[in-house]
Design brief:
It contains 5 helices and 5 strands. It has 152 residues and is α/β, with parallel strands linked by helices. It binds 1,3,4-trihydroxy-5-OXO-cyclohexanecarboxylic acid (DQA). 1,3,4-trihydroxy-5-OXO-cyclohexanecarboxylic acid binds next to loops.
């Protein structure tokens, strides 16, 4: 059976392609989703791909991942810098989390350099645009394989 990965996107990421393309690029979220699905298929992973502008909805989806998903890739967008609720949800699910940012949050305004949610993440990928999601899929696959090998 294929492992299922939850890929979550926070507020305003539905606007990718038209939103500050000089920072976030011209790729749309639909295109990023398609690239994730095609790479996930080659890695033998199933993907649930979601976006919400609402913090509570993101928390609900993280909670629902328990028992259904093997890992989470999340771009919490602006909630990265504000949301203890998302941090707590990510800490509660007991599975590997990778945080992704399209931009390099450390090369921008000082308030973006702090990630509250990253405390729950195994690692962070930022600054590679939509390709960061693909890098995260490979990183997660490796983490899941290592965990399986350690359990044998
Ligand atoms: C972002 C960076 C955040 O600071 C910002 O609020 C976003 C997108 C990124 O992917 O680079 O909405 O998470």
């Amino acid at each position: 059976m294929h492992a299922t990965i939850l890929i979550l996107n926070g507020p305003n990421l539905n606007m990718l392609g038209v939103r500050q393309p000089e920072i976030y690029g011209y790729e749309t979220l639909t295109e990023i989703e398609a690239a994730c699905r095609s790479h996930a298929a080659t890695l033998g992973l199933d993907v649930i791909f979601r976006q919400s502008n609402s913090e509570g909805e993101l928390v609900d989806w993280i909670q629902q991942a328990r028992g259904r998903c093997a890992g989470i890739i999340i771009n919490p967008a602006a909630y990265t810098h504000t949301s203890i609720a998302l941090l707590d949800a990510l800490l509660s699910v007991g599975m590997p989390v990778i945080e992704v940012h399209l931009s390099n949050i450390h090369a921008r305004e000082p308030f973006r350099a702090q990630s509250i949610t990253a405390r729950a993440a195994h690692g962070l990928i930022g600054g590679f645009g939509g390709h960061g999601y693909i890098l995260a899929l490979y990183a997660l696959t490796r983490l899941l394989t290592e965990t399986k090998e350690n359990q044998q």
